């Protein structure tokens, strides 16, 4: 009869100790070894996980009982391991990748599985199989890192766009050919004096908190009205957009404003920032485009600022 020590046999084998609660009460009535010439009754029998027959301790292994389906348990276990995803699948770990083809153009190996987890190259930021993991194998020095080209192009594109915008603003200022006011004093002391003076006369919503106010000199150019340079001092919220400032300024200076009624740029009003030398977009925030003491002018028929994306 098998000794009690047999219950300590690890389960990571082709055979396992039978569970009395699941295997027909084997420990209560015992089981006969199913090897033809043995047939010994054993109260602690073993179940072969390849052929599903019961054996005594002496004949529990596949070799000892000449298993009718040798290696079946090992094959099932191997297939189960291969079906598991790699450690880094879906987690973006440095040396593990999700299931995908190797990034080497000449390779069709699938990586990201338990058998071939793949290796991530920090230099070119691509994933490779074991054969192409070395930089020399995937020609790393001649590859542009993923994301690097786009980022560099975008940086240069942005710089170029703003440079063109500044040049366009200067050209537009000359193009209008109109006698526009010169910028107010630029020294710190002069700006402080100008701001203090404008605060004394500026009009606006008294309910607006002082820390939210931006004080501006507002003028209407001759093309917009019958009077030349009707002007005034006003304050607006730094949270407003330029389009709202335009509406309020046009109303205050009694300038006809048909921006919401026409699509023709010849009839639309635009806001020109004297100190910045450019037209302001309707969607710009007052707090980011203007500071107290600046001057803005309402111009008609000068067209919109260019779209940075198209520059």
TrEMBL record:
A Pfam family recorded for this sequence: UBL_ZFAND1
UniProt KW DNA-binding keyword: no
Record SUPFAM superfamilies: AN1-like Zinc finger
PANTHER family the record matches: ARSENITE INDUCUBLE RNA ASSOCIATED PROTEIN AIP-1-RELATED (PTHR14677), CDC48-ASSOCIATED UBIQUITIN-LIKE_ZINC FINGER PROTEIN 1 (PTHR14677:SF40)
Top-level taxon: Eukaryota
Entry protein name: Related to Zn-finger protein
Region annotation (Disordered) ranges: 1-22
GO CC aspect terms: cytoplasm
Keywords assigned: Metal-binding, Zinc, Zinc-finger
A single MF term (Gene Ontology): zinc ion binding
Membrane-spanning ranges: none
AN1-type domain sequence ranges: 27-75
Alphabetical list of SMART domains matching this protein: ZnF_AN1
Keyword Metal-binding among UniProt keywords: yes
């Amino acid at each position: 009869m098998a000794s009690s020590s047999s219950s300590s046999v690890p389960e990571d084998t082709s055979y396992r100790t039978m569970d009395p609660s699941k295997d027909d009460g084997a420990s209560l009535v015992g089981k006969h070894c199913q090897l033809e010439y043995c047939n010994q009754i054993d109260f602690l029998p073993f179940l072969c996980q390849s052929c599903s027959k019961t054996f005594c301790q002496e004949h529990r292994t596949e070799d000892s009982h000449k298993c009718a389906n040798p290696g079946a348990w090992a094959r099932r276990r191997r297939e189960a391991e291969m079906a598991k995803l790699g450690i880094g699948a879906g987690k973006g770990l440095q040396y593990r990748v999700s299931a995908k083809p190797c990034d080497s153009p000449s390779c069709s190996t699938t990586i990201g599985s338990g058998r071939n987890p793949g290796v991530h190259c920090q230099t070119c930021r691509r994933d490779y199989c074991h054969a192409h993991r070395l930089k020399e194998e995937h020609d790393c020095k001649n590859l542009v890192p993923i994301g690097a080209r786009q980022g560099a192009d975008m940086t240069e594109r942005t710089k170029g766009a703003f440079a063109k915008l500044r040049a366009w603003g200067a050209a537009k200022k000359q193009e209008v050919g109109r006698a526009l006011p010169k910028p107010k004093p630029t020294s710190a002391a002069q700006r402080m004096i100008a701001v203090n003076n404008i605060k004394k006369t500026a009009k606006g919503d008294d309910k607006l908190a002082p820390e939210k106010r931006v004080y501006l000199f507002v003028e209407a150019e001759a093309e917009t009205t019958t009077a030349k340079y009707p002007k005034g001092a006003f304050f607006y919220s730094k949270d407003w957009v330029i389009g709202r400032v335009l509406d309020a300024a046009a109303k205050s200076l009694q300038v006809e404003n048909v921006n919401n009624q026409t699509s023709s740029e010849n009839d639309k009003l635009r806001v020109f920032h004297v100190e910045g030398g450019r037209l302001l977009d309707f969607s710009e925030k007052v707090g980011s485009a203007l500071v107290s003491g600046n001057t803005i002018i309402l111009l008609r028929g000068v067209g919109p600022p260019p779209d940075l994306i198209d520059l």
